[in-house]
Amino acid sequence: NTGNLLRTRPEILRAVSADGRWLALQEGPWSAQRIRFQEANPSSPASSFTEGDVGPIALSPQGEWVALSIHQYSAVTVRRTESEQTLGTIQGAPWEFRKVAVSPEGFVVATTGLGAAIWLWDSASGRRLYVLRPVGGGVRGIAFGPDGKLVASGAAQASEGGNILKWWDVSSGKETKGPVGTEDIVLNLRFSPDGRYLATAGRQVRLWDLASGAMVLEFSGYPGVVISVAFSPDAKRLAANGTDGVKVWDINTGEQLLKFGERNTGSGVVSFSPDGRLVAATTGSAALKVYDLATGRELQSLSFPRHASALAFSPDGSLLMLGSSAPAFPRFELVPGTWGTLTAWEVSSGRRLYTLTPGDWVSAVAFSQDGRSVMAAFGDMSKAGRVKLWDALSGQEVRVLLERVAQGASVFSPDRRWFASGMNDTTGTIKLWRLP
Questions:
Q1: pTM of the entire predicted model
Q2: What is the bridge-based pairing of β-strands 128-132 and 139-144?
């Protein structure tokens, strides 16, 4: 409140509880032999000590217990901060617990060490819940086929013996055979409207023939990473957004038709208008730009303050809806429920109609087929989300369509009958919901 210095201690701060009430303090700069746990209030007496060569420490959200590892980090002890009472011990191999973290709710302890695995434990019982092996990299891109019968996903890295591109039959949920890619990363993918091609974005932009499963074209000269791709409605052009700005190509010839914008790192979206005349994309200067493809002229430059995550034109091309999310690796503390936004603009005038703040992340946005409503998947940090419907012109909430949807790469089917979301883990799992 005042910025006044309350007290100086000749100790090293090793951990702080999420509510700021409890501290873990190391006595002296050269030894981790003695750790004290006490309340942050300067007048509070020291609570308790622990002895030994203490490694990583993580306090529970309210500071009632602490998870800490002792030399050689082959076990994690969960004990109360106000006493020496041990609640449980998690055993492992030597040097396995070099990093320890506690979930925001305090129910789960995560540990990792020399191996590649991340272990999740129940904080109350010490029981191992899951083993995450970051080999497949999780689902990074997801798309429905134009007829809604097929859903495809791409990963950051292929799982052992698996494929980066995976395909499922929507009606049966069974995985089907798709193109076998040599790409080591897929961040985004889209089917062409005529159902002939699939475009994948990663270190390059690649075009796949769905009938043969063969790669038919690679759009070179794109240094860095490509974050998102989109087909024009007539399936004759392909647009990409990434670290080299926004590019539009002719699919038949591979010729580059247009380039604009600054480099995008971490977030970037692109979309064609329904009549194929316009292309809209976010650029590194925090601007949503709209270009006329015939003339190459910039029509609008619309400012937005967040990380772009989803973009859609209304069916008549008169409105643009942009979804944004909290950054994946924030450099400062986020205020829950304030980062995810939905902003609507009038394309012809650039006038902003409204901005909604539904949560911290928005993973997908789409207009209803009649253009009167807009739907979006959203949620708060590290929590399951919802799909809601709003009036497209006023932004007034209409109703909740789905509860408890997964936070991950998401998409609505072209006929608006289905919603799909990829899990943020290494399983490559896709969850499907039927929209009411």
A1: 0.66
A2: unpaired
